[in-house]
Amino acid sequence: MNLCSLGCYQSLLTVSGLDHRAFRELLALFEPIYHLCIPYSRQGQLVRLPQQSQSGRPRSMNALHCFALFLSRGAIRVCTLFLRYGRRILVCVLVNDSPARVLMTSTAEVAAFKAAFKAPPSAAK
Fold first, then answer.
1. According to a count of CB atoms within 10 Å of the terminal CB, is the N or C end of the chain lower?
2. How far apart are CA 110 and CA 104, in angstroms?
3. What number is the average pLDDT over the span 112-125?
4. Sequence spans of domains, the chain
5. 65-91 in b/e burial notation, b at 16+ Cβ within 10 A?
6. 3-class DSSP state for residue 55?
7. How do residues 95-115 score in pLDDT, each as one tens digit?
8. How far is CA 105 from the centre of its chain?
């Protein structure tokens, strides 16, 4: 994770609300539990990883990534808000822009295309 490794104080603080020291301290408490439990829960409770379980796919993220993803959820909400907002603006712009409108092919044009494909190709001269 670049925000951790680059030492950028302001960026990490903006995304997670933590400085580097606090982030590392919480990660040290978070990581052992991450490795002892599975991501699936029973009624919101942590479920321990079975002792004998060494099979299956590896996790798609490590403890650092999981921790950072959780802490950045506020930033994700803001991004999602602006993605939806941007989509609404783009729809508004495109609905009122005649070159961007989707035009349906007329029945006569469809019939002409079908006829052109059914006709034998003309001999090359």
1. C
2. 10
3. 75
4. 1-44+58-71, 75-116
5. ebbbeebbeeeeeeeeeeeeeeeeeee
6. coil
7. 777 777 777 788 999 999 888
8. 35
